[in-house]
From TrEMBL, chain A:
The gene is nirD. CDD domains: Rieske_NirD_small_Bacillus. One of its GO terms (molecular function) is nitrite reductase [NAD(P)H] activity. Keywords: 2Fe-2S, Iron, Iron-sulfur, Metal-binding, Nitrate assimilation, Oxidoreductase. It comes from Sphingobium psychrophilum. Residues 5-101 form the Rieske domain. It holds the Pfam family Rieske_2. InterPro entries: Rieske-like_NirD, Rieske_2Fe-2S, Rieske_2Fe-2S_sf. This is Nitrite reductase small subunit NirD. GO terms for biological process: nitrate assimilation.
Length: 111, 839
């Protein structure tokens, strides 16, 4: 069973941008909207030095970390190019105009 | 012989008198009743008749008082390009010849599955053996106030077209809500009929379901060129008017007057009838592979059905469905397997095609071709050597071929490099190598369309010693304008010279073959006004650039179009988007401006209060003579700025590729060595230059005597006061590579010092590459060049100064004050979880 959290509508997230979601006891989540209106969610930490990915430049289906410009693939959370590392991804559903994200697993276990 | 009597309404364009259809009582054939006289219902009957013309007795109910017509062609009727008669698919004779009873203008209102009968609005009840529901779609009406006012219509049937034609006859303003295909067709027709049309579209891209952003932008530009006003990202709040529609108000407060409002935001399957009859309905009426609903004697087809979770709003799946349905009805079950759809459309006369998945993503490669001079954009998405999606704009000739490759899942590795050029090129003559393709061209084949340069001329130019792209551009103009033939010229260079080709200047990034200077030149030369426009006209190879080119393009446009260009926040680095400096822990530091390094008790108290109130862990004096408050959270930034604004302070732009500080010493007012009022001049200089965006950060200093306490000779622009005036220095840098300034000139008055500063700043803004500081820029162009522009050319200097001051009119709004007042609040606030659902 998955808990799905309604976080708002597509219009709440700027195109080629991101918003952050806080769930108590959990790491902050970054929810991205790409230029083609796809929505992805990652833990808001770069695998390199934990930079807040939500503040990076979103291009294609990647985000450039604001601290050291690592490029992270939004779908997999993996660093691109020569850099190595991976940020956890969070499942997203985009239905009936609303965006839902899956409650992270750690929290479900505690709930 | 006895007769059972059924009545039949008129079948012409206007509901005519009722005549009678006589059905012999001994006609024992099964009775197929079709609810819906549209494209799906009639096509199903056609397919059935083609298989077995006599098996069923057929009755068709239609809500509209017309024979079967092609709904897709309503747009040309609205546009005045076709008449109703020209879009009729099956005329009256077809019904007669096939013994079909048509009951038009009398919609079915109820189905009684137990009695196996349908009842129409008129009260007429007809028994069926097999029922086919083909009710299509209903227009979606957004629930805003005023949606029911007279003059608010949808665009779905002939009646809507008549209403629009009548309204257009009176002229005036029309608003079309919805920038999808239907909305744009309505807007096009109304424009052709003389109305002033505004299209309101909720999303940022027109036809966002069929087009990617680049193609959507091209479409928008083309429609605007035809006089329509296109508002994207526009949300309708209400439709207003007394007794009839008078206009539309948007959520951002704008009012758009209109005597006609066409709501074309979308369609949804028309399922009410089926739902009330107790059939299984989800998004659409649920059917199996043979188009049979949850009741074995009731079938459904077309836009009203849901098959395997899919609902289709296009015409192509309908043909497949009707084939499967007719097969089932004649006991030769084949089964519908769902449709992969493509959209090939003419939107307002412009060719558009899309198919498959063009949203990109992991493992997907985008192959993009942009031909600005022809207004063509092509994008093919390849994954694992197979075409998975395509978007074409302007030239859709190869749409069918790409769609075919996509459906067949054909491996395209062999023709990968030529794929984007289309079928003729990719499969022609086995020339699978771009170089051999170019080599195979005849000498008089045109390479550069902009400048009319043939292959022979390019080869001759190379033969005369041009051994780089730039040299060819300079020598024969090929590829010197729009650049779309750059690849061809490069291949020609490779063919002629082999390994002796010299690579050109470094490109801006991997997204383009152009260098910074080329891009800037073309932005000005072609009067480009937005990032998507630059990417289109200069053939960007990625859909929306990268983190290198987007900030650069944003700056170049901002510099070229002061007061006109709308800054793209999402193309700014975090610090410039947040107007603060991000730190390694994700918090921000805040530096208020202190003019010339001066401050006062009120400012200092305000800063101290902010430090206390927001629990800032550190305050530091910066190298630029001001205070840096550390550890502010992004959500607190607007409140911090409001407090600082209240004490009269504005943003210090310590975070930007912009004017940072003007450092000063105390000068003649206090210092026993001071020769001039360096502090006062520093304040004046900062008041003039603050807020200006630059290719990189820019620092100024004013020292009051040659002892140079303000360190003016390692600044981008330094003023050293002497007894007889002001020495001006440029191009200094205290960074990794310390560089002492070059002496520019000496001037006699404060005003001259300010004028030269403005002119130099503007020259740097206009000519340096993005992220190039003044030091490497001057080393690249030479200080003599700068002297020639600033010192020797009086008129040129004055023009530069005037351009700088003009630009500054638009730059000196404190960004903090705007944010403190609530602008871009989404950048600072977290999204709040609204509800949780478990499943």
């Amino acid at each position: 069973m998955t808990d799905w959290i309604d976080i708002g509508t597509l219009a709440d997230i700027p195109q080629r941008g991101a918003r952050t979601v806080r769930i108590s006891g959990e790491k902050e989540i970054a929810v991205f909207r790409t230029g083609d209106d796809r929505v992805f969610a990652l833990v808001n930490e770069c695998p390199h030095k934990k930079g807040p990915l939500s503040q990076g430049i979103v291009h294609g289906h990647s985000v450039a970390c604001p601290l050291h410009n690592w490029n992270i693939a939004l779908r997999t959370g993996e660093a691109q190019g020569a850099d190595e590392g991976c940020t956890p991804t969070i499942a997203v559903r985009h239905e009936s105009g609303r965006i839902w994200i899956a409650r992270p697993a750690a929290m479900q276990a505690a709930a | 012989m006895e007769f059972q009597i059924e009545t039949q309404a008129g079948t012409g364009p206007v509901a005519g008198s009722e005549d009678q259809l006589l059905v012999p009582m001994d006609d024992v054939r099964e009775h197929l009743v079709v609810v819906g006289n549209g494209m799906a219902g009639c096509r199903a009957v056609e397919e059935l008749l083609a298989r077995d013309g006599t098996r069923y007795r057929v009755t068709i109910f239609g809500a509209e008082p017309y024979v079967n017509y092609n709904r897709i062609m309503l747009s040309p009727v609205l546009a005045g390009e076709k008449t109703f008669e020209q879009i009729v698919i099956n005329d009256r004779a077809w019904y007669d010849d096939n013994g079909i009873a048509l009951i038009a203008g009398d919609p079915v209102t109820a189905i009684d599955r137990a009695a196996k009968s349908v009842t129409a609005q008129s009260g007429r009840t007809v028994h069926y053996d097999k029922l086919l529901i083909a009710t299509g779609s209903d227009p979606f009406i957004i629930p805003v106030p005023g949606k029911d006012l007279p003059g608010v219509i949808s665009f779905r049937d002939m009646k809507d077209v008549d209403t629009m034609v009548e309204a257009a006859g009176k002229g005036g303003d029309a608003v079309v809500i919805g920038g999808g295909l239907l909305g744009l067709e309505a807007a096009h027709g109304l424009t052709l009929r003389g109305m002033k049309v505004t299209v309101i579209h909720l999303m940022d891209t027109l036809m966002e379901r069929q087009l990617d952003e680049a193609a959507g932008w091209l479409l928008k530009s083309a429609l605007e060129g035809r006089g329509q006003t296109i508002l994207t990202g526009a949300n309708t709040a209400e439709i207003y008017g007394e007794g009839k529609v008078e206009g539309v108000r948007l959520k951002d407060g704008r009012h758009i007057p209109a005597s006609l409002v066409v709501m074309a935001v979308g369609i949804r399957p028309s399922t009410a009838l089926a739902r009330e009859a107790g059939l299984a309905v989800n998004r659409g009426i649920q059917v199996d592979d043979h188009m049979v609903t949850s009741d074995a004697d009731v079938l459904a087809v077309g836009e009203c059905v849901e098959h395997d979770g899919n609902v289709y709003g296009l015409v192509a799946p309908l043909w497949d469905m009707c084939r499967s349905l007719a097969d089932g009805l004649t006991d030769q079950h084949t089964g519908y397997k769902g449709s992969v759809t493509s959209t090939k459309l003419k939107v307002a006369g412009l060719d558009v095609f899309s198919a498959g998945d063009f949203s990109g993503g992991e493992g997907c490669e985008d192959i993009v071709l942009r031909d600005a001079s022809r207004g063509v954009y092509k994008r093919v998405v390849v994954k694992d050597d197979r075409v998975i999606g395509a978007v074409l704009y302007g030239d859709t000739a190869d749409g069918g071929w790409y769609f075919d490759l996509l459906k067949r899942g054909e491996n395209v590795a062999e023709m990968r490099d030529l794929l984007i050029f289309g079928q003729a090129f990719a499969q022609g003559g086995g020339a699978l190598d771009p170089k051999s393709a170019v080599a195979a061209l005849s000498d008089d084949a045109e390479i550069c369309g902009c400048n009319g340069v043939s292959k022979g001329q390019v080869v001759a130019c190379i033969g005369k010693g041009a051994c780089s792209l730039d040299a060819v551009r300079a020598g024969c103009k090929a590829s010197a304008s729009c650049g779309s033939c750059t690849g061809l010229v490069e291949n020609l260079l490779a063919v002629v010279l082999g390994d002796d080709v010299q690579s050109g200047p470094k490109t801006m990034c991997k997204c383009t073959s152009f260098g910074h200077d080329d891009v800037r030149r073309e932005i000005v030369a072609q009067d480009m006004r937005s990032i998507p426009e630059v990417m289109q006209k200069l053939h960007w190879s990625t859909p929306d650039g990268c983190s290198s080119c987007r900030p650069a393009l944003n700056y170049y446009l901002l510099c070229a179009l002061p007061g006109v260009y709308v800054d793209d926040q999402q193309s700014r680095f975090v610090n410039e988007r947040m107007h603060a400096n991000i730190q390694k822990d994700g918090t921000y530091s805040v530096v208020p401006r202190m003019w010339g390094g001066l401050t006062n008790p009120r400012e200092l108290r305000a800063i101290a209060d902010v430090v206390d109130k927001y629990d800032a862990p550190m305050v530091k004096v910066t190298g630029g003579q001001r205070l840096d408050i550390f550890g502010i959270k992004k959500e607190d930034l607007p409140a911090v700025w409001a407090d600082l604004n209240a004490a009269g302070m504005v943003s210090g732009h310590a975070y930007g590729k912009s004017l940072r500080t003007v450092k000063t010493c105390v000068g003649s007012e206090w210092c026993r060595f001071g020769t001039q009022d360096s502090t006062g001049l520093g304040v004046k200089t900062e008041r003039m230059t603050w807020g200006s965006w630059m290719p990189h950060k820019f620092k100024i200093a004013v020292s009051g005597c040659p002892r140079n306490c303000a360190e003016a000779t390692i600044k981008d622009f330094g003023i050293v006061c002497v007894d007889s005036g002001y020495e001006l220095h440029v191009g200094g840098n205290g960074g990794i590579h310390v560089r002492v300034t070059d002496f520019l000139c000496k001037v006699g008055t404060e005003q001259e010092a300010l004028d030269y500063c403005a002119a130099f700043t503007q020259l740097y803004r206009e000519e340096a590459r993005y992220l190039e500081r003044t030091a490497p820029w001057i080393e690249r162009v030479g200080v003599d060049y700068v002297k020639q522009r600033i010192v020797e050319d009086d008129a040129g200097r004055e023009a530069l100064r005037a351009r700088f001051l003009f630009s500054q009119q638009f730059m000196q709004d404190d960004p903090w004050a705007l944010r403190a007042a609530g602008a871009n609040s989404d950048l600072h606030q977290h999204l709040d979880p609204i509800s949780i659902a478990a499943e």
